[in-house]
Design goal:
Layout (H helix, E strand, L loop, with lengths): L1 H19 L6 H20 L1 H5 L4 H20 L3 H8 L2 H10 L3 H6 L2 H13 L5 H7 L1 H24 L6 H27 L20 H43 L3 H12 L4
């Protein structure tokens, strides 16, 4: 609840700063941030999944998958990074823009890196550490803050650095995105097919009558994270395709706008190996 209130207050303060500087902030971005972004966080972390994450494996793994995949994407729809830049002074805004060009930011903003990183996180569900995270109250609570932040660290650079990339880079990223379909499925499949209880969690004796058995619970956990990971890949592929088409069209227009002399000079420079 505390993280939800802080995130709400910071966004509201950012909008106030923009208005104070004489600017405006789109209402649709604010609605997307509060209703879709923070609303989805509240449903996931404070609802059924957050309540039963300690007792049910599938509730815990589904909660983590949604917090790292879906919630950050919906929060990013509210353009919090753009709001930060507009609300900041010229010096701070320039520093943020320079930071977006850092290599480490480009690494986190790469869709392929994000997939490998998330797959590595999901593989923890196959180890006893999964019960440590699920069964330790302070760790389980901390995950509700850390996991969405990790998702935002990957989602926000992807959105912010798109315009800085060439159509070739976006094309390669689009092709590599198909590999994600396989990588994302590995943790869920392994969890689904494992014939032993992977996290070595103790049996909960006061379980409700509708709770699944420990093995079925584990299989459900694998099914849900497999489904969520694969379902998220579909809109990602669509977004990358649209971005590639737009970037290719923009680059083609830049070449069309060149005069014959400028085009000839650029061709000669390319033949000489100059950039």
């Amino acid at each position: 609840m505390g993280a939800l209130l802080v995130a709400s207050a910071l966004y509201a303060f950012g909008m106030w700063r923009v208005r104070r500087k004489g600017g405006t902030w789109p209402a649709r971005s604010a609605v997307a941030y509060y209703l879709a972004g923070l609303g989805s966080y509240a449903v996931v972390d404070l609802g059924f999944l957050g309540t039963y994450a300690h007792d049910l494996r599938w509730a815990f793994t589904t909660r983590i998958a949604l917090l790292i995949f879906v919630v950050p994407a919906l929060i990013a729809a509210g353009k919090p990074l753009d709001l930060l830049i507009q609300a900041s002074g010229e010096g701070t805004a320039a520093r943020i823009t320079r930071m977006l060009r850092w290599r480490i930011v480009s690494l986190f903003g790469n869709a392929m890196f994000a997939t490998v990183f998330v797959a590595g996180v999901f593989l923890l569900f196959l180890t006893p550490f999964a019960w440590t995270m699920r069964g330790t109250p302070w760790i389980e609570g901390l995950l509700g803050v850390v996991v969405p932040l990790l998702g935002l660290i990957m989602v926000l650079p992807i959105a912010a650095t798109t315009g800085m990339r060439s159509s070739l880079f976006i094309t390669l990223e689009f092709l590599l995105a198909f590999v994600e379909l396989l990588i994302d499925s590995i943790p869920g499949i392994l969890l689904r097919l494992d014939g032993a209880i992977a996290d070595h969690a103790p049996v909960i004796h006061n379980a409700a009558s509708w709770w699944p058995s420990p093995m079925h619970d584990q299989h459900l956990a694998g099914d849900f994270i497999w489904f969520i990971a694969e379902a998220i890949d579909v809109p990602i592929l669509v977004v990358l395709l649209v971005r590639w088409m737009r970037r290719d069209k923009a680059e083609a227009k830049q070449y069309d706008d060149l005069t014959d002399e400028e085009y000839e000079a650029m061709t000669q420079a390319h033949l000489r190996g100059e950039r």
